[in-house]
Amino acid sequence: MNDDPVIPLPTTQRICPVCGKPANPRHQPFCSGRCADIDLGRWLKGNYRIETEEGPEERSEDSEEAG
Questions:
Q1: Which residues have C-beta within 8 Å of that of residue 28, sequence separation ≥ 6?
Q2: Which of 30, 43, 54, 62 could cross-link 35 (Cys pair, CB 3.0–4.6 Å)?
Q3: Are 33 and 52 in contact (CB under 8 A)?
Q4: Which residue has the higher pLDDT, 35 or 3?
Q5: Cα atoms in the Cβ-side hemisphere of radius 13 Å centred on 45
Q6: Can you say whether the dihedral through the CA atoms of 38, 34, 37, 48 is positive or negative?
């Protein structure tokens, strides 16, 4: 009996966004825990960003008011 709550991938096989190998259902969308950790590290270092309309000055004023 398998008590693993992992949802299987759709019929089309996905590839790992970090290394390009086939994704593993246990670590989807990645192929392994290592690639998942690499991606998390990229997020934490700020390599991935979501662009906004606000400039650096606006953010610094907001942070001064909050602090």
A1: 6, 9, 14
A2: 30
A3: no
A4: 35
A5: 7
A6: positive
pLDDT in tens, 5-62: 776 655 567 899 999 999 998 998 999 999 999 999 999 998 988 888 887 775 555 5
Q: Is 46 left (phi over 0), alpha (psi -120 to 50) or beta?
A: left
Residue with the larger pLDDT of the pair 27 and 1: 27
Instruction: State the Cα–Cα distance between residues 31 and 35, nearest whole angstrom.
Output: 7
Amino acid type, 54? E
